[in-house]
Amino acid sequence: MRRFSCPTCANEVHFRNSHCITCGSELGYLSESDRIMAAPSGSGRWEDEGAVWHACANRQAIGCNWLVEGGRLGAAEADVPLAGSLCLSCRHTLVIPDLSRPENAERWAMLEEAKRRLFYSLVKFRLDVGDLQAGPDTALRFEFKADELSADGSKRRVLTGHENGLITINVAEADDPTREKHRKAMGEPYRTLIGHFRHEIGHYYWDRLVADGPALAECRRLFGDERADYADALARHYDEGAPPQWQATHVSAYACAHPWEDFAETWAHYFHIVDGLETAGWYGLEGLGQGVDPMDRAAPGWAEAGPYGADEFTPLAKAWVPLTVAMNAMNRSIGLSDFYPFVLSDVILGKLAFIHRLIHAPR
Fold it and tell me: Locate the Zinc-ribbon domain: which residues (predicted)?
């Protein structure tokens, strides 16, 4: 994530901010140009170079600060607020939780904030999310649902998962104590909302970028044959756990369950690395990268777009590993658990390099 400043007063603002606390300007994020825009307080209009934008329809409900294009200045449609129009991220959510339950409003807002961070990365990687109008069955879609009590008192649970482009997330994951309880029960060192999103879209992009394509053979060589029975593999994993020494070949214990899960876990981890390096670079922490500066556009392997546009994966790994060592040491110095509870073996780095090539391959 990059750093942002208020266009009006130059005070630092953050990706989620809807207002500048210094000058009061209304802020809005333009995903297509990766910038924060300012509007006079209360105007509800953002104008620049003859174009006009309006707030996402979810701005008041969940604090979404993304903008929706409203046409050109002087045109009739530009003078009419786009009531009900949703931003790129929000319009891919098809189902929201029951807002008559007080806790669900906050949970929905937290889920959408994490999803906007996901879409920030998808836009920077130029990954296609599909067309909800022309191809609704192949577009990336989201449903946020809560467990329900049946008439007999039993609970109908919502499982977080992916099926044919539709990602379902149980809104209880947005409750910190609940998510922590699940993390401990599953023996996981890491469990976050953004992690869920990045993992589940890994399944979506396996279908879009790997299945029946030229990358399939190499994917099977690295991750295993996905034709192995998925239900049997999961049952065996939950019954027996990960095999001994799994850390040498898999980024997480759950990645051992099935080749699809290995791919999704590795895909999510690649997103962690790239977005983490972009953040580090913008905050001046790039010096930890063994002489590789994520913000140095002339460094070998880097493209104009920084970590998101790196030509090769090797410079990313060289910058990331020492950064995580330092961050772990920082956490320990103030009594916290490790910031980065992972070990990247050569095998895992090879899988991450495959994800890098897959994302940046010409399409």
Answer: 4-100
